[in-house]
Amino acid sequence: MKTNTRMIRINDEIQRELANIIRSEVKDPRIGSLTSVIRVETTSDLKYCKVYVSVLGNEEEKASVMKGLKNAGGFMRHLLAERVNLRNTPELIFKLDDSVEYSVRMNQLINEISKNSGSGDEGNE
């Protein structure tokens, strides 16, 4: 996808507004406070918008949150149309993003390795 400054600004604005909508407007009990909008990718014709969300919890909670987001998608799109001045309001497609959990896990593994190699070096001296 070609990214120009206009699309970057639109993506940033949509991301900011969706984060606010999810945090304060959506009353679905499935969508918890540990749901974050990581990034947004809007097509150049403004028809579709992929919304990457991060959910902290187990697989069952993640599935429940994703189902809740899909059900509330029309409501969120309506609020987005009121708040962001675009000719077309894109259809929201929610995707689960596990990159935050992946990076936390990798950090834990790196810390384990550095602890183990640190204790092994001291024994060799």
What does this structure look like?
This protein is α+β, with helices and mostly antiparallel strands and 125 residues long. The chain has one domain (5-97): 2-Layer Sandwich (GMP Synthetase, Chain A, domain 3). Helices cover 56% and strands 18% of the residues. It contains 4 helices and 3 strands, in the order H-E-E-H-H-E-H. The protein has helices at 5-24, 59-71, 73-83, 99-124; strands at 35-42, 48-55, 91-96. A 3-stranded mixed sheet has the order 1-2-3, sandwiched between helices. A hairpin with a 5-residue loop joins strand 1 (35-42) and strand 2. Helix 1 crosses helix 3 (73-83). The protein is globular. The N and C termini lie far apart (54 Å).
In a few lines, what is going on in this structure?
With 125 residues, the protein is of the alpha+beta class. The protein has four helices and three strands, in the order αββααβα. The chain has helices at residues 5-24, 59-71, 73-83, 99-124, and strands at 35-42, 48-55, 91-96.
Any chance you could write out the topology, listing elements then pairs?
Elements: H1 5-24, E1 35-42, E2 48-55, H2 59-71, H3 73-83, E3 91-96, H4 99-124
Parallel strand pairs: 2-3
Antiparallel strand pairs: 1-2
Helix pairs in contact: 1-3
**What is the end-to-end distance?**
54 Å
Q: Give the count of structural domains.
A: 1
Strand order of the largest sheet: 1-2-3
CATH architecture: 2-Layer Sandwich
Overall average pLDDT: 88
Share of helical residues: 55-70%
Q: So what's the oligomer here?
A: single chain
The fold-level CATH name is GMP Synthetase, Chain A, domain 3
String of helices and strands: HEEHHEH
Secondary-structure-based class equals alpha+beta
Q: Kindly estimate the percentage of residues that lie in beta strands according to DSSP.
A: 15-25%
Instruction: Give the overall silhouette.
Output: globular
Global Rg: 19 Å
The residue ranges in which pLDDT falls below 50 over 5 or more consecutive positions are none
The CATH class turns out to be Alpha Beta
